[in-house]
């Protein structure tokens, strides 16, 4: 469990978090994802975190008639501990009013706001008494609301309440059934108080940038609606907390964007079933236009040109579908096992390549149906993102075991968002980069990513 203490860095010390370098990694949020998003849950440890970290996103979603629910995990009562005019109960009530007012500016009604009233600056974390109570409460709220997207502070954001809220979400989503929300993490105190150990190590495409240039005014108004934190309203506690202009600027002067981490390690998606593909092929024998698409034709040609050797003795094609790429691979092979989870697709493939003695078609899904054998060429084209992260890692292990020394693996995947898929194309390719195989080269264009590996 990560250290959840509040990290305070003396002001004379240089910040270790480079916001520009962090933001330069970002890719734009896929508009197709936003178009399919209907319900979003925001977890905020304190009133004001929601406006700072997610105010633009919230405003965008509510303007487009999407449902947004916000949960505050603490009561916000510890910002001015020495105030006599605003003791804990009074301050907690004031901060709730501020949160409701801020969210009204962003388009969220009061009946979509919940307060768990946890102890500010002492929210129970994993392993501490009282933690399970909040986990059960959050699990119930997620089950009732069924969000497609959940936002939570970054795992190692340097404040114990932020880290405890993250831990709460992970525990609450561990046993979800029928709900597969995407998790985005947002930084708050990472900008100001990060230690080296707190810095996120992100893989390609794990940082998303959302253009909120049309919502900056609402975001700023919502931040300053938290006037107990942004003004001198509470004047009898000079040591009390204050959101200083330079801190606020981290969120309002970010080039008209908000930044969210969608890390593969938090992905909760499940492997797509055989029934999913059977339904698709029942509706259309060529559902992805393999036979006619210029995109597919160009991608197949690129795939073949990327093979480091002209000829291979034994090949495995994972997810051959109706056999269009299969037919192109055959001249490069002495023998090929071509598998697909859908028998309907394989029937079409068998007709296309009838009586070809080089091919052994098999109905099989990965990882459980991975064929036994030794292969010097394995091709996985547009298949990896149908798997959960756990099943993808099992598949990679099987590929490592059954690929012959000096054998080639080539993987190709579409990189745009698809609502049904557990993983993105980038997540698949980043996972392979951690394998034991040697990476020969990779290519990327506006639509897909291709990588070639060799077993040494």
Q: How would you sum up this structure, described in words?
A:
The protein starts with 18 loop residues before the first helix and ends with a strand. The longest helix has 18 residues, at 88-105. It has 16 helices and 15 strands. The chain has helices spanning 19-24, 31-36, 49-63, 88-105, 131-145, 160-172, 190-193, 216-224, 227-230, 245-252, 274-283, 294-305, 324-329, 343-352, 389-402, 425-433, and strands at 27-28, 39-44, 67-74, 113-118, 149-153, 182-186, 207-211, 257-261, 312-318, 333-340, 359-363, 375-381, 403-414, 438-444, 448-454. It has a seven-stranded mixed β-sheet with strand order 11-10-9-12-13-15-14, with helices on both faces. Strands 4-3-2-5-6 form a five-stranded parallel β-sheet, with helices on both faces. The protein has two domains: 19-266, LmbE-like (Rossmann fold); 274-454, Vaccinia Virus protein VP39 (Rossmann fold). Helices cover 35% and strands 21% of the residues. Helix 3 (49-63) crosses helix 8 (216-224) and helix 4 packs antiparallel against helix 8. With 456 residues, it is an alpha/beta fold.
